[in-house]
């Protein structure tokens, strides 16, 4: 991984826009949830984007988080005994979390890239992924979610309707309002401007 200097011009503008999307209040809520979900052994980060990034950077806290959403005995991410110190091992741990989050049900568009967290490129994307994971956990309501359910929005759930054959046949006899009506309509008295003059 190359050391990068400061960004200039358009790159700097883009990076500053990305950084403005980071939400400090959301960070507080996510930290509270992660500590409630995993227990106090995960610790707490220093306040701010950098502290949050350093806390999650090696992937161990994220792995504990996603494992806590599964019943005991079926943990999707293997957590090493000691936190990884080598860069590629830390990135691999983050990748395992991302795979487990996708298997849990987080859609691909809500999942951050490893570099977004590891190099702090887009910490707002990390927040979005954690929000999506929390929303899914609250929605599933399977007893594995810990914390205040009001911290996350429940996802919309399918409400399937069943109709009998007789109900479906009755529906074919009704003209829906979307099809319009021609009650009382005729073309009497309609004119479209002057008639065409044919001169011979």
**Category by helix and strand content:** mainly alpha
Radius of gyration based on Cα positions: 28 Å
- Regarding CATH, which class? Mainly Alpha
CATH topology: Actin-binding Protein, T-fimbrin, domain 1
Uncertain stretches of 5 or more adjacent residues: none
Domain Calponin-homology (CH): 24-137
Family: Belongs to the calponin family.
Keywords: Acetylation, Cytoplasm, Muscle protein
Protein name: Transgelin
How are the secondary structure elements laid out?
Layout: H1 9-20, H2 24-38, H3 49-56, H4 60-68, H5 87-104, H6 114-118, H7 123-140, H8 165-172
Helix pairs in contact: 2-7, 4-5
Précis, in short:
The chain has helices at 9-20, 24-38, 49-56, 60-68, 87-104, 114-118, 123-140, 165-172. With 200 residues, the chain is mostly helical.
Question: What does the model show?
Answer:
This protein is an all-alpha fold and about 200 residues long. The chain has one domain (about 10-150): Orthogonal Bundle (Actin-binding Protein, T-fimbrin, domain 1), CATH 1.10.418. About 45% of the residues lie in helices and about 0% in strands. The chain is built from eight helices and no strands. The longest helix is centred in the middle third of the chain and has 18 residues, at about 85-105.
